[in-house]
Amino acid sequence: MTSKLEKALARLVAAAKHLNIDTTILERLEFPQETTHARLTIRMDDGSLKSFRAWRCRYDDSRGPTKGGIRYHPSVTADEVETLAFLMTVKCAVMNLPLGGGKGGVQIDPRHLSKIELERLARGYVQNFAKVIGPNRDIPAPDVNTNAMTMAWMADEYASIVGERTPAVITGKPISLGGSLGRDDATARGGYYLLQFLAKGLGFTQGARAAIQGFGNAGSHMAQLLESAGYKVVAVSDSKGAIYCPAGLDIKKLNAAKERNGSVTKLAGSDGVSRIAAGELVSVECDLLVLAALEDMVHAGNAANVKAAIILELANSPITPEADEILKSKNIIVLPDILANAGGVAVSYFEWVQNRQGDYWAIEDIHARLKTMMEEEGAAILACAKDKNITLRSAAYVRALSRIVEAIEAKGT
Ligand code: NAD
User: Fold this and answer.
1) DSSP letter string over 244-305?
2) Which ligand 1 atom is the nearest neighbour of the CA of 217?
3) Of 117, 183, 230, 382, whose CB is crowded by the most CB atoms within 10 A?
4) The two domains 15-168 and 186-331 share their CATH topology (first three levels equal)
5) Greatest alpha-carbon span in the chain
6) How is the chain split into domains, by residue range?
7) How far, in Å, from the CA of 27 to the mean position of ligand 1?
8) Is 15-168 CATH 3.40.50.10860?
């Protein structure tokens, strides 16, 4: 069976065909530089000891210290961690950040842990991987089921181990412990800046209709940004189901419903809002489809039903390679994850820089820097796609690979 990593690497191999590169360099990128696997044992509240599998992967540090989140999930595997670390390597290169790619994971369902057990888990993770991570080596951040509180415990544990405060070892921290302003909506905002920059060329006008799959951090912030720019958000979904309102949903009410009832679906039945099957979301009548939930949501079985002219990938790998081909044949433009959701890692990078400088930036500066980055890289990728007559995804891989190869070659043997 093809591993997740092999599937992800296929996109890099395809990009390499557009570049004149030494094949040994490509071979080198076929597996990670370093993956550490640890047994993480913590004391539970009832006095028992429980052990969990944990990983940290540094996929490639040719362009700088590795960077990537830590995920807690029962289905985490070494293959998944390495695949996500590979994607981070590509994403950091797409954005021209002086960073390589990394990722971490613990095979655990955190919903069954108390707050103090979660704190022991976070501290245990750092005790196991303290030699792997470091502000000049590998810089973790939040991912699925980890958050600012987790990062605060981890940064504190690292400080105890090395004997000095080292905020730059981890990003996504609370503001009071050296976190950056603007990190909360950075992923959606980066995607939004990219979309707005390309909007005119893509034929988008005031009142364009958007459907959003996933209403968590990325999806809900995107909904707010789109509404304030005059888009009509006609459909949204979460893990409980989907709703549709052709006249446009009220995002404030959506947020309130999510807050109150844990799901956007509770808004159905009032103000022209109707419930639709979760699977229908990708095929509703709209101009823009935002994918902000999970991987592989648009696949060979539903790609042909997509009506949107443009898809913005805020989630990682939400479109399978087979679906990519179908969307291409329908001339649907995909703004690819490694560019469209890179606002999160860009602001994480800003946090790392601020921690190292001891100088903290105003929110306006953060937004302005992010906007410039998204527009510059977006324009370059668009030009590369036109020049080589390839998709934006392929063009993003081509640019990332050429930057990684340049760094590898510059170092010599
Ligand atoms: P989140 O957990 O806050 O939100 C995920 C949302 O998806 C939730 O609303 C959940 O109910 C919904 N969902 C789950 N299964 C679904 C399904 N089958 N159909 C429809 N909706 C479903 O997560 P997030 O931080 O918003 O991340 C979303 C995606 O974006 C993930 O793929 C993540 O890896 C990616 N991403 C996030 C960031 C970030 O900074 N938050 C950065 C880069 C990439």
Assistant:
1) E-TT---HHHHHHHHHHHSSGGGGTTSTT-EEE-GGGGGGSS-SEEEE-S-TT-B-TTTGGG
2) 26
3) 183
4) yes
5) 66
6) 15-168, 186-331
7) 32
8) yes
Per-residue pLDDT of 139-165, as tens digits, reads: 999 998 999 999 999 999 999 999 999
Atom 3 of ligand 1, residue of closest alpha carbon: 216
CA of 188 to the centre of ligand 1 (A): 11
Cα of 238 vs centre of ligand 1, distance in Å, is: 9
By alpha-carbon position, which residue is closest to atom 5 of ligand 1? Answer: 216
Top mutation candidate among 194, 275, 294, 374 for ligand 1, by most atoms within 8 Å of CB? 294
Residue with CA nearest ligand 1 atom 14: 239
Residue 253 is among the residues annotated as catalytic for this protein: no
CA distance linking residue 214 with residue 359, whole number of Å: 35
For 184-232, write each residue's pLDDT tens digit.
999 999 999 999 998 877 777 667 999 999 999 999 999 999 999 999 9
Fold of 186-331: Rossmann fold (3.40.50)
List C-alpha distances in Å: 71 to 50, 105, 364.
Answer: 18, 5, 30
Residue 267 has pLDDT above 90, yes or no: no
Per-residue confidence (pLDDT) for residue 270, from 0 to 100? 83
Tell me, in angstroms, the distance from the centre of ligand 1 to residue 293's CA. 4
Binding pocket residue ranges, ligand 1, CB within 6 Å: 187, 213-219, 237-239, 278, 292-294, 314-316, 341, 344
**Among the options 67, 91, 103, 371, which is catalytic?**
103
Question: For all residues of the chain together, what is the average pLDDT?
Answer: 95
H or E stretch covering 43: strand 34-43
As a whole number of angstroms, the distance between CA 302 and CA 300 comes to 6
Please identify, by atom number, the ligand 1 atom nearest to the C-alpha of residue 317.
Answer: 32
Residue type, 85: A
> Using 50, 70 and 90 to split pLDDT, how confident is the model at 98?
very high
Q: Which residue shows structure tokens 């992800």? A: 8
User: For residue 295, how far is its CA from the centre of ligand 1 (angstroms)?
Assistant: 9
> Rounded to 5, what percent of the chain is helix, strand, coil?
50, 20, 35
pLDDT of residue 275: 95
Phi, psi of 228 (to 5 degrees): -70, -15
- Tell me which DSSP letter residue 341 carries: T
Average pLDDT for residues 228-242, to the nearest whole number?
95
